[in-house]
Amino acid sequence: MEELMTVRNKLKTKLTERFPELSTWLYLGALSIYILAMSLKGTMLVDFLITQRGIFYLSALPAFLVLLKIVFLDEHDLKDLVIFFLLEVVLFAVGTSADEFLIFYFLFFIVGAQGINIDQILKVFLGVNLFVIGLAFIFSSLGSVKNVIVTRSDSPALRFALGAVYPTDLASRVFFMMMAYAVLKRFKLTVPEYISYVALTLLIYIVTDTRIDLMLMLLLIICIFFYERLNVFLKKLSAQVLSLLSILYIFLIILLGYFYSPQFGLLEKINNFLSGRLFYEHVAFENYNVPILGQFIYQNGFGGGFKVLDYFYLDSSYVRTLMMHGLVVFLLLLVLIYLLFVKFKKVELNYWIICFLLVILTSGIDQHLWNISYNFIFLALFADLLVKKKVTE
């Protein structure tokens, strides 16, 4: 094995000397393709511009390219590579059982982000998502694909998806993009940018009638506006305290679903506010055990605007992780949360902590935690967050 590592190190040296930017462009190119695949998967463009098999190829190819970067170009010793491959084997087995490979693919890009400037990652994230949103809007407006229009049971207001599979998916994607842009600006927005944020928030609410994302967007704007005060407060909190609070929230979300009963007035009010999420989570706990390494749970959602008689879907990312991907992956998620807080405290960039807390908050009620076209936060674990300023003479 030592001989193999020696050969690998020699090859790495030759490649980096001849192509200094190879590592960066290989990763960003692969990331662009994979985010494109995941973004398209959340639109009505599937089976119109691209097939499900095409989505698979646009997922597997980038993962392979990033694997080459990890093995041949990054600074990993033999122990690191062994741990990485063992984790991928476990996640592949879990993905096979659950019939969902989002976490398996995500790990390639988390580890592969080593040495990559986070600003470049955020620009790719924003650019690809904006392109897909625009593409879906154009084709849905032309009538080439379905513009999903739904209503709530308690409201006659029309909710438009504009080419996305469901209005909430569009609203959530815009929320994550607003966070990414705010991070790119270091939480320092100009007056026109604040006006744009408020206008975009109102527009998305009018179009999608999504209450939770409205509150999250407003909360984000408030956090940006009062960032200096929040920054002082967050400096007093350790990574351990932030992790503990986050884990308590995660277990609270899970327990609300587990103990839900319409007989409990408070839980019923929460369930109604969350559009019945607690009810379906409770059904999952009643019908399935918590697996060690994943299991398949049949789900039938409203995505695509089709009439569904036997609706059943788990929205909470934490309940999905525990019930679909198993106890091992759930525990790995808790470790990941701790490691990210440690990283953010180490570099003293508290706007990352604010965004991560918002992601943890929204993941209690939506399913996008492991989707790279929404959640960019996990990519920060190995990426370079401290952008080096050019020295001018």
Automatic annotation (TrEMBL):
Protein name: Polymerase
Transmembrane segments: 24-42, 54-72, 84-112, 124-144, 164-184, 191-208, 214-234, 241-260, 322-342, 349-365, 371-387
DNA-binding among keywords: no
Keyword Transmembrane helix attributed: yes
Keywords: Membrane, Transmembrane, Transmembrane helix
